[in-house]
Design a protein that fits this description.
Elements (H helix, E strand, L loop, with lengths): L4 H7 L3 E5 H13 L6 E5 L6 H8 L7 E4 L2 H9 L8 E2 L6 H9 L4 E4 L2 H13 L4 E8 L9 E2 L9 E2 L3 H8 L5 E7 L3 E2 L4 H20 L6 E3 L20 H12 L9 E6 L1 H4 L3 E13 L2 E6 L28 E7 L8 E9 L6 E4 L21 E6 L2 E7 L15
Parallel strand pairs: 1-18, 2-3, 2-12, 3-4, 4-5, 5-6, 6-8, 6-9, 9-11, 11-12, 14-15
Antiparallel strand pairs: 1-13, 7-10, 13-14, 13-17, 15-16, 18-19
This protein binds pyridoxal-5'-phosphate.
The site of pyridoxal-5'-phosphate (PLP) has 15 residues, from β12 and α10.
Length: about 400
């Protein structure tokens, strides 16, 4: 990754830099790792910046579609040029208001997480004179792989428990305002290796076949994701040299019609596509020692990155060391008034002075979007996009309070 310190001087810190050429390269490698006819949904939650997402939609080569989970992501997706009718709308808590907006703006394909979720989708679709195509999200009884960030294979708000599906199938296939068109599996993120990924996909395919035997129309099968990439530490996204052949073998065995498009097949990815494009630059605003511990205080903390650390997933970060003549162990902290604003405890950093700029690599996914941007009222970080080595976009998220008229005084 290039040295972006000159951009930090020009645009200030904290600063995210996204290299769109790296997004293009990740998209090429993921499509190459999948059988040719696979569709690929880009999970907008990873990085909803419309111009980053646009690169995943635009050619050359096959285009991603968008997986969205809120009306905010829908707006970002449409701004990026995705076609509403081709998006997949997911999530366990779809409200009537957001369903009305989504259907009104042209969304037709939903992943449903329960019978009641599907009934809500159907009721709103009917009010709009539309029919919602629903993928039944399945919470399998067991996991194919034992590693990664597991979302399912255990009691969960996601998906319908596989063992209840035989009894539910008659109702799921007759909800007014909907048409059950297939199944959705998204069981884990960041699979540990290629074998785990394939075994999870094989389990999804086998489960889908069982559902088809129970009467689920299987026109469309989304086998999920789990494609891995490092977060906030150096490294390259995972390589999948045998996945394509492995998946073809599984599909030939269980769903031989796939080669002629029955069912349509899809995967999903967020981090693999965008994690590696992004770097975060922060400036050292203070350095202090407390009882023999060094604290390097940065101008950005969990308000600009790593807000998901509350659920123990993501931190600590690593800082680029490549041109450092000497290094030290320090606590990397942000500027917020909370001891929780710790990006890394006892991490190795270059010998730093106040005013220096540090770079955290591989934060193009779950960066700004997964951070506590409003906490303690600091400005959001500036986001710079580069393509072909040139800056092509500079922006910053802004939030402001929108007041509404007080309709009735009193409570
Ligand atoms: C339904 C769904 N699809 C896709 C993703 C993207 O995951 P990742 O960024 O690990 O590829 C997620 C992440 O939580 C998800 O819930």
């Amino acid at each position: 990754m290039s040295d972006y310190r000159e951009l930090a001087e020009r645009y200030g810190t904290p600063l995210y830099v996204y290299d769109l050429d790296r997004v293009r390269a990740a998209r090429r490698s993921l499509f190459a790792a999948l059988p040719v006819s696979f569709e690929l949904f880009y999970a907008m939650k990873a990085n909803p910046h419309p111009e980053v997402a646009r690169v995943l939609r635009d050619g050359p080569g096959p285009s991603c579609r968008a997986e969205i989970s809120s009306v905010g992501e829908l707006s970002a997706g449409l701004e990026a040029g995705f076609v509403a009718g081709e998006c997949l709308y997911t999530g366990p808590g779809k409200t009537d208001a957001e369903l009305a907006e989504a259907i009104g703006r042209g969304i037709r394909v939903f992943s449903v997480e329960s019978l009641t979720d599907m009934q809500h989708v159907g009721a709103v679709a009917s009010r709009h004179g539309a029919v919602a195509e629903c993928l039944i999200r399945v919470n399998s009884l067991s996991a194919g792989a034992s590693t990664g960030i597991r979302m399912m294979g255990k009691p969960s708000q996601f998906g319908i428990d596989a063992e209840t599906l035989p009894a539910l199938m008659p109702e799921l296939t007759s909800v007014p305002g909907t048409r059950a068109v297939g199944a959705h599996f998204y069981t884990m993120s960041n699979a540990a290796n290629e074998a785990s990924l394939l075994s999870e996909f094989e389990q999804a395919v086998r489960s889908a076949v069982r559902l088809a035997d129970l009467g689920l129309p299987l026109e469309f099968l989304d086998i999920g994701g789990g494609f891995a990439a490092p977060y906030a530490v150096p490294g390259e996204r995972a390589a999948y040299p045998t996945l394509r052949a492995g998946l073809e073998r599984v599909l030939d065995q269980h769903l031989p019609g796939w080669r002629v498009g029955t069912p349509r097949l899809a995967c999903e990815s967020g981090r693999y596509l965008v994690a590696g494009c992004g770097a975060l630059l922060c400036r050292v605003v203070n350095i202090k020692t407390s009882r023999d511990n060094t604290f390097v205080v940065l101008d950005g903390g969990i308000n600009v990155m790593g807000g998901l650390s509350g659920i123990g997933r993501l931190l600590p970060v690593a800082v680029r060391l490549d041109d450092a003549e000497s290094t030290q162990i320090a606590n990397l902290v942000g500027p917020l008034c909370t001891p929780g604003d710790m990006l890394g405890r006892d991490v190795r950093v270059p010998k730093l002075a106040i005013g220096d700029v540090i770079t955290v690599p591989n934060v193009g996914a779950y960066g700004v979007t997964a951070s506590l941007v409003n906490f303690l009222g600091r400005p959001a970080p500036t986001e710079v996009l580069i393509s072909g080595g040139a800056v092509v976009s500079v922006s910053r998220l802004e939030s402001r309070r929108a007041y509404r008229p007080v309709e009735v005084a009193g409570v």
